[in-house]
Design goal:
By secondary structure, the protein is α+β, with helices and mostly antiparallel strands. It folds into 2 domains: 225 residues, Malonyl-Coenzyme A Acyl Carrier Protein, domain 2 (3-Layer(aba) Sandwich), CATH 3.40.366; 64 residues, Alpha-Beta Plaits. It contains 13 helices and 8 strands. Helix 2 packs antiparallel against helix 4, helix 9 runs antiparallel to helix 10 and helix 11 packs across helix 12.
């Protein structure tokens, strides 16, 4: 599982890169594409360039996720046959597609860099915003948003008690106020400066489609790729449509995890910064009364736990040091 925008945090991946310096090359490639030193931005040493800026955070998350993916798959001698599927949350689909073999790291970085640039430009004109609504039934949220038609939308269904809304900044703020009046106490504005997964991204979607058509040729995937917008497995011929449609359509994370649980997926590994997806899967599995192993790569300690756990399952045959 690969996380999306909002999972970034200062100095993410620092210890991993210090211990595995060969993976700095991923950030060198991304830095050249974006025109800024990505490592300096992550470590807060790049002046006014904020890691929370869409232009920088998307390619930073992609670069770290791909580096961690290759470390887990290659350096840890992971048995590829044990991987039932790869999937991502929003931006995370780009990392998942790299993991699947749909394109090279460089081509993926070009694509993510272009996506972030387009989204930044669009946001300056639309002034979008996203917020997570916690502990509310979707029916209540839909009822409130009916008063904000074409201005605020449901963007992500993350688990049974976490729904993300997206839209024009002023309208989202008004919707938050109305939701609180309905007794919803916890609503968290997200660390993003765009309004993803709603019609405000139509222009970006069109530009991305044109960019993909001109610059990207998708390859046959070596691992099954599961779309979290379509809640279905897809092949290389579907990728362009998936990546353009996901900008304007909601992410159905809870439905996707339910699907995989129903097919007896037993181990979920989050590859990238943070533990957002790990926590979501934990809550979904608990509601479904399913016992699963959930691992991640957020810290060196987490990676050690991953090594030991997967070795115990016979999924890692040896660890290359």
């Amino acid at each position: 599982m690969f996380p999306g925008q909002g999972s970034q945090y200062p100095e993410m991946g620092r210890e991993f890169l210090e211990a595995n310096s060969k993976y700095n090359k991923y950030f060198e490639v991304s830095s050249e594409i974006i025109g800024r030193d990505i490592i300096e931005i992550i470590n807060g040493k790049s002046g006014k360039c904020s890691l929370d800026n869409t232009l920088f955070c998307q390619i930073s998350i992609y670069s770290l996720s791909c580096a961690l993916n290759d470390y887990v798959v290659n350096d840890l001698s992971l048995n590829r046959k044990s991987i039932g599927t790869v999937l991502g949350h929003s931006l995370g689909e780009y990392s998942a597609l790299y993991s699947s073999g749909a394109y090279s790291f460089e081509k993926g970085a070009e694509l993510v860099g272009y996506r972030g640039k387009c989204m930044c430009r669009t946001d300056r004109s639309t002034k979008g915003m996203m917020a997570a609504v916690l502990g509310a039934e979707i029916g209540v949220i839909e009822d409130v948003l009916s008063s904000f038609k074409d201005r605020v939308f449901i963007a992500n269904c993350n688990d049974y008690s976490q729904i993300v809304i997206s839209g024009y900044k002023d309208a989202v703020r008004d919707a938050i106020s109305d939701l609180k009046k309905r007794g919803i106490k916890k609503i968290i504005p997200l660390k993003v400066d765009v309004a993803s997964h709603c019609p405000l991204m139509n222009e970006v979607s069109d530009k991305l489609a044109a960019f993909i058509d001109k610059n990207i040729e998708f390859m046959d995937m070596k691992l099954p790729f599961f779309s979290t917008t379509e809640v279905a497995y897809r092949n290389k011929h579907d990728i362009a449509k998936i990546l353009t449609d996901q900008l304007t359509n909601p992410i159905k994370w809870v439905n996707s995890i339910e699907y995989l649980l129903n097919w007896d997926m037993a181990i979920f590994v989050e590859i990238g910064p943070g533990k957002v997806l790990s926590k979501l899967v934990e809550r979904i599995a608990k509601v479904k009364d399913r016992e699963v192993m959930i691992l991640n790569t957020n810290t060196i300690e987490d990676i050690e736990k991953l090594k030991n756990s997967l070795r115990g399952e016979g999924i890692i045959s040896e660890v290359k040091e």
